[in-house]
Amino acid sequence: MAAAYVNNGDGFNTASGGSIATAATSHTTGNLLVCCVRHEGATTTISISDTAGNTWTPLTKVTHPGGDMHLQLFYVLNCTGNASNVVTATFGANRTFRGIQVQQFSGLNTYDEEDSGTTTAGTSVTAGTVNIDGAGVVVNGIALYGGLLTWSASTGYTLVQNSADTQRMGMSYELETGSSAESPGASGSSNDDWIIVSSAFLEAGAGPTIDTQPASQTCYEGQTATFTISATTSGGTLSYQWKDDGSNVGTNSNSYTTAAAVYSTDNGAQITCAVTDDN
Questions:
Q1: Across the strands, what pairs with 100?
Q2: CA separation for the pair 179, 136 (Å, rounded)
Q3: 265 backbone dihedrals φ, ψ, rounded to 5°
Q4: Is the pLDDT of residue 277 over 90?
Q5: Per-residue b/e over 177-197, b at no fewer than 16 CB within 10 Å?
Q6: DSSP states of 242-272 as a string?
Q7: pTM above threshold 0.85
């Protein structure tokens, strides 16, 4: 099934608050959802929930070099659908200039990779190279400090600005017909501060299907925590790479147990797993 863009939902609030939500948007079971969240002020934790009860996987949070603007992507593969799905970002502390945007795509079922870039007082921003490993989509979250009335995505990418604040936030995407090295970006008519976070997803059949995502674990200090993932191959042998806050950990297995006992400092650690096969 060829990948296709479906729709966009968003929300924005400049005042201080502890959460931000999209308008109710129709999401179809089995589709890919990509959520972009931005805020200003000191960095804080972000968690995502929705009406449909999906489990959202976080990508790396990026902070602008000035320290006052932050952007993070989250995604759901093979989502549970809901005709009026509201997606909510909840912050660890009240923050200003909170924005959220969710794009939906069909025909995609595998996470590939991510990259990011920032610019201070410049007319453009470019992410590092995103090497998509087959047909799929490259999706970008873009945050601006708010000085530009006019800005656009790089050539070939479709820009969807946040309808509640077009000067401070948007997402762009490009559907890819095969493997390519992409360097997506955005530019404006005058200087601004920028963040871009890019992610790539592959078409169904171009990689394994994730049947069960790793679940959050709660344990007492001094215990270990075990995470498992279930996937179906689209061809060949499944391979697993576990990550702890982005750093490779564990072995080539569908389960991962922390190497050492966990303590309060591990609270909120993001354990993810990249699954590949021979396609």
A1: 11, 37
A2: 9
A3: -70, -15
A4: no
A5: eeebebebbbbbeeebbbbbb
A6: EEETTEEES-SSSEEE-SS---GGGTT--EE
A7: no
**pLDDT above 80 (res 278):** no
Q: Quick check: 97 and 167 in contact, CB under 8 A?
A: no
The token pair at 74 is: 């989250």
At 54 the three-state DSSP class reads: coil
> Using only C-alpha atoms, what is the Rg of the chain?
18
Amino acid present at 4: A
Cα separation, 188 vs 149, whole angstroms? 8
Cβ 135 vs Cβ 178: under 8 Å: yes
The HSE-up count of residue 269 (CA atoms within 13 Å, CB side) is: 20
Distance CA(151)–CA(123), nearest Å, equals 9
d(CA 194, CA 5): 25
pLDDT tens track for 44-74 = 999 999 999 999 999 989 999 988 999 999 9
List, for residues 202-249, the tens digit of each pLDDT value.
987 656 888 999 998 888 888 888 999 999 887 678 999 999 888 899
Alpha-carbon distance 64 to 144, whole Å? 10
Say if CB 58 and CB 74 are below 8 A apart.
yes
Give the HSE-up count for residue 273: Cα atoms under 13 Å, Cβ half-sphere.
Answer: 28
CA 55 distance to own-chain centroid:
12
Q: How confident is the model at residue 1 (pLDDT cuts 50, 70, 90)?
A: low
CA distance 97 to 80: 29
Q: What is the pLDDT of residue 146?
A: 80
